[in-house]
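ok so I'm stuck.
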Amino acid sequence: MPLFADVILPLALADSYTYEIPKELENSIQPGHRVIVPFGRNKFYTAIVFKVHQNRPENISLKEIHSQLDSNPIVNQHQLKLWQWISFYYMAPMGDVYNAALPTQLKLESKAYVSLSSKYHEINAHLTPTEQEIVDYLQDHKRPQQISNIARDLNNRNIQSHINALSGKKMVLVSQTINPRYTERRENYIRIHPAFDQETAQDVLRRAKKQLELYNFLKGYFEEHNATSISRKELLLDGAFTASILSALINKDIVEQFEVSASRLNKEILQTDKAKELTPIQQEAYDEVKEVFEEKDV
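replied:
not stuck anymore, here's the structure
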């Protein structure tokens, strides 16, 4: 009698979906296993097996599980029950719970991107013929490639399991999305050129008063703030020095401009608010909770 599996997809879906288990996998698939399943048009997802049974849904054309990724379940029965409780208690789809519970690397999708790691050539790992074929493919294409494209070009339906193996060997990196509209924000910084002999500054700039003022300002700023660089934007903000004066120092190799990756959040201005003072009732409740935590191993 054929076996079926109810699986949890990493999507905000209200229900689990049922797939037929191929004959060759009937003796190995268990709840908690990761499996690759087709969903939608030409897409594959990593699903978690929630239940294995023999009850074929009526009037529904079922798809087969594509492949199995694990020899042992990565989610145990207690965790699956916890996921179910979280889904019920917070009225959240099981797919959302799944997404929150498992790291990205364990959720390969056909639309995910794969690229060679920066040190793949230094890793002395034994590769299967298919894994070597994938590495050669990525070397030829340079840019990150979609898993679905790799599967199509290499004519291999089970490509995800091999990519998963390469990821475990640190040979490839997997990212869920590549958004071409996103570009890393870079910011220009200024520092005194490491090759410049600072003792000669007065002589070199004796006929360029403004340039000397800027140089002395930078030197004093770095000493006062125990820093080695300053944001170009910050330096020119108050208008005391112009971009042309700065460019002159750069052209003379007295200072140099370089780029750094700027966080979307300015960490220097992030401050934690002082903890609010508790009311007597709140303080009493807090002390009771703290006492319980100290008494019991929670």
